[in-house]
Write a structure and sequence with these properties.
1 helix, four-stranded mixed β-sheet, single chain, alpha+beta
Length: 83
C-alpha cells in the first residue's frame, strides 16, 4: 500500500470514529404546555402528561419558559411530577 493509500485509509477511519462518537451525544427538548426542559435520555412519557418532544435544534417561541430538573419526570404547571 502506498503512502497516499495509507493516508486516505487513516483519514476515513478517523472520520468514521468521529461520526460514531457524536451519535450518543444527542439530546432533546421536552415541553408540557409553555414549560420546556432538556431531556438527556429518551423517555416514553405517560399519555396524560401531554409532553411533546422536540429535536435538540428546535427553537422555542417567546412565551416558552425553560425549567431544568434531574431525573425522570415532567413539569405540570409549577410542579415536577416524577415517575
Amino acid at each position: 500500500m502506498t503512502l497516499i493509500g495509507k493516508s486516505l485509509l487513516g483519514a476515513a477511519a478517523g472520520a468514521g470514529l468521529l461520526a460514531m462518537s457524536s451519535v450518543g451525544a444527542s439530546a432533546a427538548i421536552a415541553c408540557s404546555g409553555d414549560v420546556c426542559w432538556h431531556a438527556h435520555e429518551h423517555f416514553d412519557y405517560p399519555p396524560g402528561a401531554r409532553v411533546v418532544v422536540h429535536e435538540d435544534d428546535w427553537r422555542p417561541g417567546p412565551r416558552v419558559i425553560f425549567r431544568e430538573h434531574e431525573g425522570r419526570g415532567y413539569w405540570r404547571g409549577d410542579r415536577w411530577v416524577a415517575w
